[in-house]
Amino acid sequence: MNWDDVRVFLAVARAGQILGAARRLELNHATVSRRIATLEDALRAKLFRRLTTGSELTRAGQRFLEIAERMEADVIAARSAVAGEGDDISGTVRIGAPDGFGVAFLARHLGELTAQHRELTIQLVPVPRSFSLSRREADIVITVERPTEGRLVAGKLVDYSLGLFASRSYADEHGLPKSAAELSGHPLIGYVPDLIVSPSLDYEAEFSADWRSSFAISSALGQAEAVRSGAGIGILHTFVARSMPELVPVEIIAPIRRAYWLVYHETVRPLRRVQTVASFISKAVERERALFL
After folding, report:
1. Does the chain have fewer CB atoms within 10 Å around its N or its C terminus?
2. Do 72 and 116 belong together in one domain?
3. What mean pLDDT do residues 110-124 have?
4. Would you tell me how many other CB atoms lie within 10 Å of the CB of residue 193?
């Protein structure tokens, strides 16, 4: 069995299509198809079903995916060991993070890490979406829930809180609600319900059973900016709101608590660059733990 054929198999399995895998591998479509056929011949099993929408793993393909990922982990570990502990950290690490945590916290810290390791490149993708570690869309992901499926390594970073906030200008002009019942009499800033990436982020009902956003934004930082502009009252991350002196808390409902988790795929555990970045993020959060609650 040729490792290059296995590597092509992994790319197709993760992309869900031969064309996407070919682009990622910088190979042509025919070469990828030929490599898959060679591997199937060697294994005497059909690994993919060809569909009009792409390539779907067969039952044999699903079983082989687990074996292929273990092979990949061994290759990664071997390369890391051969590279030597004395070498500087190098390569690229992509971090997927919610935009609040990614922009409001991580972005201002990661420059310190790249200054320490000049051969290390960090890609921070702070958008309100989910990332697939099994498909290698990111090396490290910050999530709001601990993953329960897949070969993933997860560690809790920190608890954080969300509460109601308004701008000082809004409070001066319109006043603030004195009870939860008065909240519905104010314009409310919220999220777009069908675009949330986790059930734990659907928290409007925890503040008001009849919450109705007059202005919905699918970005935590966008919501904060709308509240800061005086557009209404919103549920904001407290660590984001504290960085905006124009905001005041609306203390009619107690803040709620959520958590951030740092997650990466088991196969990249041996990579020193991934471990270095993961350790740096954990230490940066620990130094400013009080900021989040």
Report:
1. N
2. no
3. 93
4. 12
Listed residues 37, 67, 83: the one ending a domain: 83
Task: Give 165-181 pLDDT, tens digit per residue.
Answer: 999 999 999 999 999 99
- Answer with the residue of higher pLDDT: 255 or 66: 255
pTM for the structure as a whole = 0.75
**Of 83, 105, 130, the domain-final residue:** 83
Q: How many domains does the chain have?
A: 2
User: What digits encode the pLDDT tens for the residues 49-103?
Assistant: 988 888 999 999 988 988 888 888 778 777 766 665 445 788 899 999 998 999 9
Other beta carbons less than 10 A from residue 158's beta carbon: 20
Q: Per-residue pLDDT tens for 129-179?
A: 666 676 678 899 999 988 887 788 899 999 999 999 999 999 999 999 999
Domain hosting residue 52, numbered range: 3-83
Q: Are residues 268 and 203 in the same domain?
A: yes
Same domain, 109 and 44: no
